[in-house]
Amino acid sequence: MLIPQLQKVLTTPIIPNSRQNQSRLTVIFWYSLSLTFAVGYILMGLRQAFSSKYIVSDDAREYISWMYRYFNPDLFPGDLIADYFQSVTPIGYGILYKIIAALDIDLTFFSKIFPIVLGLITTSYCFLVCMEILPVPMVGFIASLLLNQSLCMHDDLFSATPRDFIYPLFLAFIYYLIRSSGLGILIVLALQCLIYPLIGFVDLLILALRLFHWQNGQITISQKRKDFILFAAAMMIAGIGILPYAIQSSQFGPAITAAVARTMPDYWDGGRVSYFSDNIINYWLFGRDSGFLALISPPQLLFGLLLPIILKFQSHFLLTKQLKDEVKLLLQVVLASLIMFFIAHALAFQLHWPSRYTHHTFKMVLAIAAAISITLILDATLQWSRKNGRQIFILGTIMIFGAGLVLYPSSFSLKVFPKTPYLEGKVPRLYNFLQKQPPNIVIASTSGEADNIPIFAQRTILVGKEYALPFHTKYYAQIHQRMVDLINAQYTEDIIQIKDFIQKYHVTFWLLERSAFMPEYITKNTWLQQYQPAAQEANAKLQKALPVLATLINSCAVLETDNLVLLKTECIKTLSKT
Q1: 77, 315, 323, 472: which one has the fewest Cβ atoms less than 10 Å from its Cβ?
Q2: Which residues, 6 or more positions from 335, have their beta carbon under 8 angstroms from its beta carbon?
Q3: DSSP label at 12?
Q4: Does residue 36 register a pLDDT over 90?
Q5: What pLDDT score does 416 carry?
Q6: Which residues, including other chains, have CB under 8 Å from residue 287's CB and lie 6 or more apart?
Q7: What mean pLDDT is predicted for residues 539-559?
Q8: Cα 471 vs. chain centroid, distance in angstroms?
Q9: Whether residue 533 has a cis bond before it, omega within 30° of 0
Q10: What is the rounded CA–CA span in Å between residue 93 and residue 59?
């Protein structure tokens, strides 16, 4: 009797519009369990986010620092970096944070707590989509569990960037598409185009693919007028949503071409992007920015690859009779994503990194397909055990497998879970000191700590590794020239060159690491090594004599920590006159 009862609890479909209390309780149980794990994972991540005052998501430094202009318009005056990231921030994302600023809520604080909302919405729509494809509540639980595990193994939920919105919005789009809710589809598409426009192209392709049907070995065009009206409306909304963003971000364009990128160390191993690779398999499959299988984990998602095989042998899996026709939507998502992936490669880099079109959508498709596959296999196994009397063996196997799914993140195979992108600022004294300075100051530095100054001190830096994106030509040409000039000035023996550098860029403070004048500082710094021949020349100068700047530390330092020294450039200019 145990196996039938277990099968009833785990794999019995829910009858649509059923008024049976047992059915509703089953749905509530699995949905609640899904939300419980989602919240649990997120809270584990947020524990790190609030462990210190000066903690922020890695990429939030790019997107959120300039938004402090919403509180004080005088911040970051004439700041190239702030202006650039304001221009590439999707309009909808900027509006959201402008509203938060109007409510007088700190933007960094908001970026830390908002994953709770996004996680709950993602889990809810994932559960609903699964119930529309295969109305077995356990499918929704497994899919949301796998998806949340995947999101927490990468920075797809805690990044405090527009990509955090991909999952709740795309799953909502799929749900309303299945439900044939034109209004829902268009609203979600509009939000998608305003917050993360890249996936808007995938949405449009899915709608286009659904205009065609495969019948009797032939492709036929939909005869439903409403399908074409919906597609036309979607095209219009996408144009309205994406065009202003394209115009806004083009002020620092055009995008660097693939031919030029191949000549730049920034795009190879160790570079800021690491797009190209000598390993062709890594380039096309697993490259973070170039591969269509980038960052697909956990391995349990690969169960999703079994679904096409299972569907070929439906007679062995009786529960497949409950699968709805909309399961084909998973294939349409894959096709649309791959089409955009190859288009993005062909137009590199006009449509941003190709992997952005598959990395996110594949994880959602695989999570849903894996949950369906696991449930179908489980049901078939229980059916087989009822006929062959292998109940103890089957029960043991199910328990071990179930425990593996749930406990996977805490196993020894994952050293850190959730894997959050949070970074801690280590120099509060520096941030506090700079915050007390006028808003128009400029800090020059080759130190990695400079990346934290805009977000923690809300002050302008000349350059920073985190902000040195080699994507738009007009922006990166200025960043590259600034970096070359900084390296040359920092390691020169000519005090006049230092003075000219300070005047050219209106530098107020110069932040130095105490190790900056050791040869290893240059030779082992992959960021500095991208700027040749300036880095090699600087290293050669260090071999011969101590740079002038090193001799001014004791005279011009206004703040010192264990490894950092902040110099005031007015002092340097004064000394240069004597």
Answers
A1: 315
A2: 205, 209
A3: P
A4: yes
A5: 73
A6: 274, 275, 277, 294, 355
A7: 91
A8: 17
A9: yes
A10: 14
pLDDT of 17 reads: 58
Distance, in Å, from the CA atom of 203 to the CA atom of 68, rounded to the nearest integer, reads 32
pLDDT tens for 379-434 read 888 887 777 666 666 677 777 777 778 877 765 456 678 888 899 999 999 999 99
SS (H, E, C) 266-277: HHCCCCCCCCCC
Which amino acid belongs to residue 248? Q
Average pLDDT rounded to a whole number, residues 212-222: 80
**What are the distances in angstroms from CA 16 to CA 20, 131, 134?**
10, 10, 11
User: What tokens were used for 179?
Assistant: 């439900």
CB 427 within 8 A of CB 561: yes
> What pLDDT was estimated at residue 19?
53
Cα separation of 409 and 149, whole Å? 7
Number of H helices, E strands in the chain: 26, 9
On the question of a cis peptide bond just before residue 547, with omega within 30 degrees of 0, the verdict is no
Cβ pair 147, 367 in contact under 8 A: yes
Question: Any bridge partners for residue 444, and if so which?
Answer: 510
H/E/C letters for each residue in 50-114? CCCCCEEECCHHHHCHHHHHHCCCCCCCCCHHHHHHHHHCCHHHHHHHHHHHHCCCCHHHHHHHH
pLDDT digits (tens, 9 = 90+) for 514-546: 999 998 999 999 899 999 999 999 999 998 889
Tokens, residue 205: 């392709």
Helix, strand or coil for residue 413?
Answer: coil
Q: Please compute the mean of the pLDDT values over residues 187-210 and round it to a whole number.
A: 96
CA quadruple 493, 498, 499, 504: dihedral sign: positive
Q: Which residues contact 7 (CB under 8 A, 6 or more apart)?
A: 379, 382, 383, 386
**What is the average pLDDT value for the chain, to the nearest integer?**
90
Q: In this structure, what token pair is assigned to residue 437?
A: 């300075």
3-state helix, strand, coil in the chain (%, to 5): 65, 5, 25
% of the chain exceeding 90 in pLDDT? 68
Nearest one of 320, 346, 363 to 166, comparing CA atoms = 363
DSSP string, 300-325: GGGGGGGHHHHHHTGGG-GGGGG--G
Considering only CA atoms, give the Rg of the chain: 27
For residue 213, what are its two tokens?
């049907």
User: What CA–CA distance (Å, rounded) separates 381 from 397?
Assistant: 10
Q: Compute CA distances 276 → 271, 348, 357, whole Å.
A: 10, 12, 17
Measured from the Cβ of residue 234, the count of other Cβ atoms closer than 10 Å reads: 22
Query: 445 by DSSP, 3-state: which?
Result: strand
* Cross-strand bridge partners of residue 509: 443, 568
- Report the alpha-carbon distance of residue 126 to residue 157 in Å, rounded: 15
Q: How far apart are CA 204 and CA 537, in angstroms?
A: 51
Other residues' Cβ atoms within 10 Å of the Cβ of residue 224: 11
Distance CA 507, CA 547 (A): 19
Q: How far apart are CA 315 and CA 306, in angstroms?
A: 15
Note the pLDDT tens digit of each residue in 65-85: 999 999 999 999 999 999 999
* Nearest by Cα to 121 from 69, 85, 157, 159: 157
